[in-house]
Design a protein that fits this description.
Layout (H helix, E strand, L loop, with lengths): L6 H12 L3 H20 L4 E3 L3 E8 L2 E4 L6 E4 L2 E8 L1 H8 L12 H4 L4
Antiparallel strand pairs: 1-2, 2-5, 3-4
Helix pairs in contact: 1-2
Length: about 110
């Protein structure tokens, strides 16, 4: 299984591809993540067309059993962060993407004349 990427690796790769300094990329990434976090706190969705949408959803209260003690633990209802991948991201993961930078027309836009 692939180990994955950490923030420092993403920053290094983005700096190389964008010809920006690692510090500038880090500052930009921190700003974007703060904007997303603040929007989610306010219940707003954040959408990157083709990539996906960050949103919050309600998680109902419930009960779980502690694995060792078998004690029943109750947790309260709460909002949780969620992510729904967009079409381009989903296709890229499946190996079907034609281009990472060119958004594909949606089914709604295909039949309409400009």
């Amino acid at each position: 299984m692939n180990e994955g990427m950490y923030k420092t690796q993403v920053i290094a790769k983005a700096a190389k591809e964008s010809r920006m300094s690692k510090r500038d990329v880090n500052d930009a990434l921190r700003a974007v993540l703060k904007i997303i976090r603040d929007a989610l706190k306010q219940g707003q969705r954040v959408t990157f067309p083709g990539f996906g949408t960050f949103y919050t959803r309600h998680k109902a209260a419930g009960k779980v059993k502690h694995i060792r003690t078998h004690e029943l633990i109750t947790y309260s209802a709460r909002q949780v962060a969620a992510f729904r991948p967009g079409q381009l991201l989903s296709r890229a993961v499946r190996g079907q993407a034609t281009s990472a930078h060119a958004p594909q027309p949606t089914s709604r836009a295909r039949g309409k004349a400009a």
